[in-house]
Amino acid sequence: MVTTTHTTPAPRRIGTVSLVLVIIAASAPLTVMAGGIPTNYAVSGMLGVPQTYIVLGLLLVVFAVGFAAMSRHLHNAGAFYAYVSAGLGLRQGIASAILALVSYNMMQIGLYGLVGFASSNLLRELTGLEVSWWMMALLCWALVAILGINSIDLSAKVLGVVVALEFLVVIIVDVLALAVAPEGATADAFAPDQFFAPGIGVLLAFGIAAFMGFESGAIYSEEVADPRRTVARATYIALITIAIFYAFSAWAFGIGIGPSQVVERSAELGPDLVFVWLSETSPVLGHFASILFVTSLIAVLLAFHNAAARYFFSLGRSGVLPRQLSATTGTGAPLAGSLTQSALAVVVVIGFAIAGTGHELGPLFPVITLFTWLTNAAAFGLVFLLAVTSVAIMAWFIHHPHGYGLWVRVIAPALAALGLAVVFILILANFDVMIDAEEGSSLIFIMPGIILGSGVLGLLWGEVLRRREPAAVPSAPAELVTVGKEHHD
Prior knowledge:
Elements: H1 16-27, H2 29-44, H3 49-71, E1 74-75, H4 79-88, H5 90-127, H6 133-148, H7 152-180, H8 200-207, H9 230-257, H10 262-269, H11 272-281, H12 283-318, H13 335-355, H14 365-399, H15 406-429, H16 431-434, H17 443-468, E2 481-482
Helix pairs in contact: 1-7, 1-9, 1-12, 2-8, 2-9, 2-10, 2-11, 2-12, 3-8, 3-9, 3-14, 3-15, 4-5, 4-14, 5-6, 5-12, 5-13, 5-14, 5-17, 6-12, 6-13, 7-9, 7-12, 8-15, 11-12, 12-13, 14-15, 14-17
């Protein structure tokens, strides 16, 4: 039976600035600068990477129109679960919740492969010590696990410091790049033929990963000081900041390397390109950026850990998963959800550590397998969820117009659903490229299959719950509170 309580995960005390920092931490500015931008240049072979962030930013801002409006009225720690349940029905909501839970966990756990590799390399460079990637990953895991069971206030403070430092380093990189500019500053990256070309699918498929986590603001809607305004305001600020900042940084980086060289050098060095280039320009800054890259990854780990923990909490509270998962600490942090997420992470990391022993990929094993497989599958799942949520938003506003106009209730969500569906198809079509798999590899089907399969299992589980005691199953989570019947602000 689906039962509910009216508990909240923590007192309402998160402000707009703190929530913006939590959202941006999930997108990791320095990680995108070092990993996402060079990878996009290398794989697409095109200069139009800056345009990618502008186009995707506009698409997600359109999505945020309905999403933010709905967030003013529905407050629930299981954002996708709550929104899809309210708009399309409880079974569909449970399916989306299970899919979201799997996606957030895969995103978070996959990052341990990259942070283990990066921190192991950093330790070797700074001290000469050789420590395996999985040992460093487990150290990071312990830190995230400890922070995860503390109040969101502590996490927000830690993330705030890290995000501020990341922005500082990326801004310095941008300034240095424009100052060096071996071929001069040009606008070639913004030429239409550098974006609207056969490689556009790869550009968009890789670029969307830079925005993953922007929707997490709604997950904290029960913990913000002003739920009717904070989530919407923070989502818009974070999205616009991310889009403009990444577009400018991608352009500046291309200028710093040289438009005629950036694709080739990105293919040659990958994520190391930023740090190699920085070390050539300023060795001290190069070392500092390498250190901050690791802390940036820890910040992302914490952001997605908090999101997954709150999904466990919400699903436990509503009875979709065991109610023990709704247990919280004295500060209101989702204790059981946090511990469950940490337990899943340590099991998977240890499993990959065993599988990678003596593997032919050597030190790159955790990056090529654990990180690449899981995070790309997670991005695939989250884009699918965004598209479904857009449809749910339209359906909800049909019955709860709240005085909003046609643009907010129908047009913007419809455009977002269509655009996100296109990105979803592009990711699926380019999945072999994204995980660097050989043609015909079973991974091309297994990884997306895990994501979509989790949604199907969620749908079946929702039907089981409905049949078990139909009268007890509401049309939406009972703890999902609709607030305010008045015209929007």
